[in-house]
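Repro case for the chain-ordering regression, as requested:
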Amino acid sequence: MLLYFLWLSLVKGIGPVAVKRLLAHFSGPEEIYEAELEDLLRVEGIGKVAATSLVEARSLREASTILERCQKKNIRILTCLDEDYPDSLHDIPRAPALLYYSGIAPKKGGVALVGSRKCSAYGKEVACEAASYLARHNVPVLSGMAAGIDGYAHTACLKAGGYTIAFLGGGVDTVYPSEHRELKEKIAASGTLLSFFPPGTPAHPSRFPSRNFLMAAWADTILLVEAGKKSGALLIAEYGMKLSKKVMAVPGSIYSGQSVGTNALLGRGAEVYCSPEQLYCSGLLTYGDDKSGFSSANARAKKTEIHGQPEDVTPQKSLMSRTKKLQPDAGKRSASESDILQLLETSPMSMDQLALHFRDNRSSFFEALTMLELDGLLKRLPGGIISLTRQIDEKI
Amino acid sequence: MASIIKSFALTGVNGYLVEVEIKTISGKPSVTIVGLGDASVRESSERIQASLHESGFEFPKMKVVINLAPGSIKKSGSHFDLAMALGLLLQSEQIVIQDPERLHVFGFLGELSLNGVIKPCRGVLPMVEAARNAGVEKIIVPRDNLKEAMLVNGVEVLGFENLKEVVSFLSGEKDYSHVLEQGQATTNRGNHASGNDFKDVIGQDALMQYIVVAAAGGHNLLMIGSPGCGKSMAASRIPTILPAMSEEESLEVTKIYSIAGLLQNSDSLILERPFRAPHHNASTNALVGGGNRAIPGEITLAHNGVLFLDEIAEFSKKSLETLRQPMEDNFITISRVNQTNTYPCNFMLVAAMNPCPCGYYGDSKCHCSDYKVLQYRQKISGPIMDRMDIQKNLQPVNFLDLPVGAEGYSSAELREKVELARAVQYERFKKVPGINCNAQMSPAQVKEFCFLDNEAMELLRKAYERFHYSARSYHKFIKLARTLADLDGSMQIRRRDMAAALLARDLERDRAGMMVV
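-- result from build under test --
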């Protein structure tokens, strides 16, 4: 049956809409394969052109090659006749009827974290925070495995032990961009690589819009982290709005090129994203073992009530307890250590800049710096700039 | 009987005695040179014919056979000309030596021009040294090589301008008149001609500390920074704080430069430690040595000094990998069809690179993703990175931030510290063959020579728990801490030494903080 379904998905001129109509009319793809022209023409919405191409394409050679390839590379196929096929896609006629995936069987729903390839440190931080938050709450993180925000979203999710789905703009056996080779392997191990392009299809920008549509259709919520004026990620959010999904955007500086798209989206009615709890409270609940998948709005509300605070420690909580633990230490800091803390209060500095203030006392400076780092009071920014660890109480 | 004249040839950085044997036999006039000479040796016969004629002598109209003994070693170079010409004159009895028995105390080096002028040649220093070791008392060299040759003590060096002069000297018609004081050149030690001084490096105090550590312990150093933040400036000054070269080291370096034909200032030993900065386009052979004659490469030219690889990520992977073995062995053997040479290459590797493909990592204009940054850094393979004990991030200095009148540390001041620490290490490794600085310690020796006090041990343990350093960097931290303690004159490694050592590997810290799987 799978073979015939594969064949059906490969016929030129027959899109997902037509496939679904045919399936509704016939009892199975095999029957479609064997159907005569007249039978096909009887299906609502199938014209003469489409019917002829179906009849003319009656050869299983290509389909069986692909199926063989899938078996060899351990790539599996999900069709709209399967139970695992998400309801969110059932509702959308344009959604692909046949999907290839490798890794574990795709879980339904999730939050799409999308953004530009060339992201800023701000975008990176937001994406990572959101992804690890979602991971901790067993919400699938969806993204496109592109460079930048996408890569960070997947990575942060995996690092926090979460489940992520990568929607690829090529076959699931291709790597794009090349630097994500390792990431791809990790996703295949504990997440899912998903695509409706047959294996071996190279990634190409022309394929990204349809990939984006699939992601928008799959997701329950879409968070646009950063987007320039003409970003592909912006497209996902727009598809999301059309499909009346919940769309959120991260507000950014009006002077930043990476925030032009997000700010514009906010103007068009996207929800303002301020903290990851918004993603959780927006109605996404435990996806983990919930076989039925999509819980109704009522059930969602109830569950939130029951649980109140999620069991996992929120970042705020954990950081709060850490600061508390550190406080009694504060009195015992050496002179150099307090000097360093004071100097860094105004702005982060490089090690060389700091050292300038300790010219007469360098060895105690290095000692103090190491001690502060080991106690978690300092962190390194990219390029070796040293800054104070964010004071959490400010945020609460 | 054949005439035998002493000359010399080169193998690697050393010279050896070559006996040039000349015999004229009655027969059809011809010249044959045997003894595995290359093209430059074979062409000698034409030069000799012309220069004999020009100097007022006659080329014997007989069959001439010239042999370069030992005949089994391949030889190269045009400096056998003088010896061959004199041998011919002796065979054809055109000169009468004042004291024929004493001819064997003379050695001869020099290329002849068609006008009979003696031209300078390459590798004179090691050949004169070989002459002394072979028991030659007087060596005749080209005038232009006189000063270089006189760097060797224990042999009388005579410099001549043309063939005629040599002949009249040997026959006793004229006395040698260009006497120079021997050993004149070796007095002005420690004078840095380049004028570089660390005083000019301002506002990079933390980096300076680690440069001193690197110089003191022989640790290799990698600097990571955006374009224009002073990486090359700092690197080019490192030789000025390395301890002065011993006479032996100076001679080694000068010999290498003599062979490479780079002895520009040929009147003195090279006293300043070499600083070589090959461009990243350099071929593998240019780096490690090679070519037809298996000549020394940059790593040998940097012997006893600093090899600076700017933009190390741009070097071809293959070239970088070839550095691994010589860095371990401190010598390199180059095999070519014509010869196999072994050259010393004991250098300190200083490298610089950009932090990411765009170069501005950490700046708001940098959009390189963490994966991209890591991919860029992985251009330098693990084994090479492993040899970089110190990896420091550099930031461009903002001069407005500096306190008024801020001054860097002078090279002399820093060098004093380095020399002190080196003296401690010299004592420590006196009985350990093949090791003269902390960086060269093996894990077993780390155990033997590095005593951590409890606080230092505790700190190291804590750092490993927190930052998940790799296991192979464990010994590096201890070695670095050893050098830091040496700089302070402490026998034990204290907490502050360990603390400073833990700040020396920025790349590894970066790696730990990156958002990658």
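Ordering looks correct now. Residues 411-428 of chain B form the longest helix (18 residues).
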